[in-house]
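Case study B.
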Amino acid sequence: MATPLLPDSSSPANTAVGELLSTLAAAWVADGAAAGYGLLEAGEVLPLAGVIDPDGPMTERVLDMPGGEMTVLISGAKPGGGHRLDAEAALLSHAIRREHAVAQMAAALVDADDQSVALYDLAHAETAGLDVATVMLGLAADARRILGAAAVVVAVADGAIELERVVDGDERAGEQGGRALDAIEGDGLLRGRAGEAGDVVVIRFSRSTDLSMAVVSRADRRATTPWRQLARAVAAHGSDRVDVAVLHARAVEQAVIQRDVEVAARLAAQSMPTAPPLVDGLDVAGRSDPARLAGGDFFTYVEVADGLVFAVGDVSGKGLGAALVMTTMTSAVQAAALRTQGHDPAEILVAVSTETAAHLSDTGMFVTMVIGHWSPASRQLRLANAGHSPVVFLPAAAEPVEIPADHPPVGVLPIETAVARTLEFGDGDRLAMGSDGLVEESGVDGTQLGSAALAAQLRAGPAGESAMETVERCFAYLEEYACSAEPADDRTLLMVRAVPR
Amino acid sequence: MEITIAELQATIAVAGRFDANETEAFDSFVSDLVDANQCSLAIELSQVNFIDSTALASLVTLMKRCRERGGDLVLVDPSEPLRVILELTALDQAFTVILGDGNSAAA
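Model:
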């Protein structure tokens, strides 16, 4: 087998050289310039045209062609035949060099075009709505095209924990990139060794997530400084893209949690009554506004055989945790009231304490609570108070009286025996049971409203004001006092008022 | 070798706002003490200008843990606003409270 004319025999230019030389040689033979032409390759003669007579006169001409020198053997040359060969071979060589240049330019243009498309893709990539792994895969693919790399490895980490790693490109080059990512801390460059793809550039960015990128150059390409700068620019852009995707994913997760919280808050709020009980001789109204979506304040009523049981409470802490405990407490109060048929609030308090002690200890919370019972027959109110305030008795014709707590809150120590106070509760007498969020509300100058001011406000309404009107007026006053600032604590007020039967 | 501290009361002073933002640090600090068998604790509260229910719950939980282990939690010299809250909630009946004049206020 003859040695190829040019080092790369698959080049189209190469085929052309062979064909052109043969055509030219045929023309020279026809014009009588010589008997025949051949190429001398590694001691062998490859015929081009005419007849080569090994025994006749032979001339050799060395031609300077692209890809190396070529030796043409001329058999039976006539005078001047060699000059013509020289001149036309020079023209041929020139044409071939031009053809090479055009082919290289065309290849460079194709590469540049692909890079432009990749740059466009990188700049216009839509990240919102895509999961992080998809965005990373897109980044690795774009980076590989822009940089003309053998492989690109992209890894995303949260601190020391790597969350995801993706590879685009040649498998072995990808493994090389992965090894470089593991071996190099920070940014770096690893020159390719024998048997590997090219060089590896490692670039890292720390934003809300940590992005690492290893770019492996092709075996025939060194990682030059401009190329590394381009890689850094691509990685910087990619880091932004991944950041957006991560933030988007977090926002979605947050939205899901938020929706769950809203549902839980709504369910918790539903454990409180929406309408006042219809009890002959008693006007009742309650309102509870949580400071956040949900809160630990509560009030509840239970109609029992000989009257009405009501309770107001405040679970320590705020938010959903307090709200969850709050629902347990309202259930416990209702269950105890129904079980005992509720004429003795002290007995209900003991039952609630026993029922909920373990649960409250586990959660590390306590609950201040006042439980009342109203008897239409005796027109008496009985109250058991476990750490709750403010509880204000507003007699129709006397000064307000604070009803103090006789027991620490439920959940602090077991309440084994409890006491209840009895109030004579005739027409026009009122009882207000609030939560500390009412009296501790801060005004514009930072001072708290205080229990005296609350008591004054409770009495500020017109004679014969309904329980609901008092509640609404006090909440309106409180909002005004706090200058409509977001409430710092849950606000709850339950009013009961004795009315003629 | 095992080193134990017995019958020694550790005093911890808390100052400023004592609320939900502070309880996590407080809980983890005192938890380490109780875990190390230090279950007689005194909390000095004269410089506390505000306390919320989360912080009170934190003190209640700590008091229970100390008592379970045979010790106690003593509240020392609570500031005026804190004393008011302890009385309103009747928590002064649950805690051992030493007032500024050295007298126990426990019921």
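The mean pLDDT of chain B is 87. The remaining cases will be described in the next quarterly update.
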